[in-house]
Amino acid sequence: MKTHELKLDVKYFDDIKNGKKNFEIRKNDRNYQVGDILDLKAWDPSSAMYVGEYNECVHHYHAKTLKVKVVSIFKPKTINAKKYLGRGYRDENYSVYIPNDDVFKTLREYFDTDRLPVGYVVLGIEVFQ
């Protein structure tokens, strides 16, 4: 199990914190594994600054942070092949359900595509902080 410190676009921060968004789309350059911990720090890409509790620009040590655990990993073959099938994705243990529409909405908003880019994965996550 590894801990990864990552930037999280501030527009997704509250949805993850409140459990509305239970996945992250990430480049798999860190070889994510089930059980890994992600320290997600609020980041405003328009100002290229971290965001603090009062939405002020701060050093990364003072950024709003969420601790989440990776509970499942969905690879491009699974996401892209099931694009039009069913309403979402379940991991092999049926412990995580990720709505199909939410994944593709995020792909369109953030990546301007309806397919998971090569080298990326969808991480099923669970907030534990």
From TrEMBL:
UniProt-listed Pfam families: DUF3850 (PF12961)
Stored Gene3D superfamilies: Hypothetical protein (2.30.130.30)
All copies of domain DUF3850, residue ranges: 3-61
Domain of life: Bacteria
Name used for this protein in its record: DUF3850 domain-containing protein
Organism of origin: Lactococcus ileimucosae
